[in-house]
Amino acid sequence: MKYIHIVIVLSALFLLAACSESPMPKPYGYFRVELPEAHYSIMDTLNFPYRFELSENADIDLKQVKNEKYWMDVQYPTLNATLYCSYKPIQNNLFELSEDSRKYVYKHAVKADGIA
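Request: output the structure for the sequence above.
Response:
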């Protein structure tokens, strides 16, 4: 008799807990990113063998990497983004450089969702 009361009470609790609205799927959407107004100036004061237009919203962080002279990061603090830039001259070593870049990309494949 005691067990019947426990079963009835538990059944009533389960029925009361089950009475809720059915879940609705969330619609597809994208975050809206408010991009700041773009103003560019030519960046050629670093004594690098190249020059480019740099946004006023970006900061440059020069990197010191062994055996490499022309590495830098272009950081966009408001967007929480970083562009990693390097430069290597091609001197009959195009295949080695392309293999080096391929290895670097696939080393990152563990963290990435997809590589196009």
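DSSP finds two helices and five strands in the chain.
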